[in-house]
Amino acid sequence: MSNQLRLGGITANSVVDGPGLRTVVFLQGCPRRCPGCHNQELLDAGGGREVTVEEALKEITATISPITQGITFSGGDPLMQPEAVWRLADRLKKEFPGLEIWLYTGYKYEEVKDLPVLDLVDVLVDGPFEQDKKDLALVFRGSANQRLIDIPKSRQAGMVVEWQPPVPAIRPD
User: Fold this and answer.
1) pLDDT digits over 54-75, tens only?
2) Lesser CB count within 10 Å: N end or C end of the chain?
3) In the chain, what are the domains?
């Protein structure tokens, strides 16, 4: 199992790649070349820098604060490196069990549902970006064909269950 990954970058305190403040781990490499891709600098599988899972974990840990709500794997496509991402996600789940893990991929859930890394993912944003379905009003995704899939609920139901944002508690006056 690979202990190396090709990292495009890490961004702390993102609010666009999942709910709340999140650390986003950008993985390098994507074969799709979707027209309109907003991360074109991450398409080249030889770009970015090669790091060990331990090095990436150290960098990610430095970005996590008491108000960090989650980790998001984006790209490129993180599932181009499923074993290394699994190792990293496994370590993150063990060290920060309260953080939610999201993963963006151009693959459809049905194509990748048996990958072990998905056992560690809370929400999968699946499907390629489609320029003709681009919609800036969509939450946490770029085109209408992409789904926000609640992985634990989907596994329990034996079918795709889309993620729903939590309903805020209403305080009585």
Assistant:
1) 999 999 999 999 999 999 999 9
2) C
3) 4-157 (3.20.20.70)
